[in-house]
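Input record (one chain):
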Amino acid sequence: LKEENASLRSKINKLQIFSETQADKMRKLERKLEENKIKEEKEAQDLEAMVQHVEQNLQLMTKRAVKAENNATKLKQENALLQVQLKNYKTENEALRLGQSASLATVKQNADLALQNLLTVITNSRSSIKQLVSGAESLQLVADLLRSIDRIAEVPEDGQ
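The corresponding structure, as predicted from the sequence alone:
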């Protein structure tokens, strides 16, 4: 009976040691789980901040693109007006050649003025078009970034 008691006490000691080992492992795993939760929360906050920053940039770029489009439309209208003026000046120039009352110097001055205005409009139009292209490229970059954020943020359903 003493031997059996000693044997059982030995088994109980072994089971207690095994139980303590398992309890230690469990505490370590719980700490690790808590650390992982904190890390995931931090990553989620960082990702959210980055998404907000990208959204703000997208809004700014959209505003700039709209402004550039409006400017381009305005310049196109101005260009059309100047082309009409140029046509009128050419008509006036032709009329002067046929002997009408205005002097050739006035016609030349008007044509030069129209040409200067036309060159100014062309220069401004080119600048606006460059702004539009730049804005479109920036929007494409933001769209690509947002697509890549979706791939980065994918988390398997089992939480690993």
